[in-house]
Amino acid sequence: MFMSLSNLYIDAFMAVAQKENFSIAAESLFVTQSALSQRIKKLEEELGQTLFIRESSGAKLTEAGRKLLIYGQNKKVLEEEVLNSMSETSQDLAGTIRIAAFSSVLRSVVIKSLGPFLRENPNINCEFKVAQMKDIPSMLQRAEVDIAILDYRLDKNGIVQETIGEEVYVLIDQIKGSSLKNTYLDHDSEDLATEAYFSKQTKLPKNYNRKYMGDIYGVIDGVSEGLGRAVVSKHLIKGRKELKIIKGMRPFTREVVLHHHEQVYYTKLHKCIVKELCVHSKKYL
Questions:
Q1: Among 3.90.180.10, 2.30.30.100, 3.40.50.1000, 1.10.10.10, what is the CATH number of 1-89?
Q2: Where are the domains of the chain?
Q3: pLDDT tens digits for 102-128?
Q4: pTM of whole model > 0.85?
Q5: Which DSSP category does 106 fall into?
Q6: What pLDDT score was predicted for residue 72?
Q7: What span, in angstroms and rounded, lies between the C-alpha atoms of 97 and 125?
Q8: Which CATH class is domain 167-254?
Q9: Which residues of 140-166 are buried (b: 16+ CB within 10 A; e: fewer)?
C-alpha cells in the first residue's frame, strides 16, 4: 500500500537536517522543541527507520536520513518548478539554485561564468555562498546548497563530480620595494596552499613565517603592500601590474570540481546551471 509522507513531518525533518540541532530547528519553525521531536519521532515510526543520531555535538543524519534529505530537497525544487511553469511568465526559466565555492573561484570564475546566463534569465534567483574549503562538503551533505565547488574530489556515494577546469598556482611578490623576508601569506592557519606548493618544489624555504590575511583577496593585497610572498592561482593576478611571478618554480595545479547529489530527476534550471559552468569556467581559469 502506498504511504504518503506528511509535509509537516518532512518540513520538521529538513529543518533538523540543515540546522543539525533540534533547538535551533524548532526556533526556525516557530514550534517548541518538544513538538518538533514528536514530529521526527512519528516520521521515524512511519518509515521504520532511525533518521538522526543524537550526539552532544548535534543531530547527525543516518544513511536513511541522508536518503530522505535528498527526497526533501527534490520535493522542494520540483514544487517550485511546477509553480513557475503555471505562472504568467512560464516561458521564462525561473527558480532558485544555491552554489557554494571557495574564495579563489567564486567571484573570479563562477559568477563570471554565469553572469550572461543570469542576465538573460532575470527570474532565476541564484544564491552564491563563499565558504572555507573544509565547510563546503557538509553544506552539500545538509542540502544547504545544490552545487558545491571544490579543488578536490569528494568521491562519496550518491555524489556526482564534474571537472570544470583547473587552477595553476604560482608564487608571487611585489615588483617594487622589498617584501618582508621569508614571510608567506595565507588565508588562515588551515590554509595549506603554501605547504602544498612547496611540497612540489626541489628547494624549500627554511623556517618561513606565515601571516594570515582572511581571504584570497586579502592575500593578494598583502603581497601588493610588501607584507610577504604568496602562493595564489594564476588567474587571480591578471592585470595586477604591481605583482610578479617568481620564475624557476615547478608548476602546481589543482582540479576545480563541481559536485551535486545524484538524482533521478534534475530540474531544467539545475541542468542549465551545470552546463553553463562546465562550458564557460575554463576561460576564466
A1: 1.10.10.10
A2: 1-89, 90-165+258-284, 167-254
A3: 999 999 999 999 999 999 999 999 999
A4: no
A5: I
A6: 84
A7: 6
A8: alpha beta
A9: bbbbbbbbbbbbeebeeeebeeeebbb
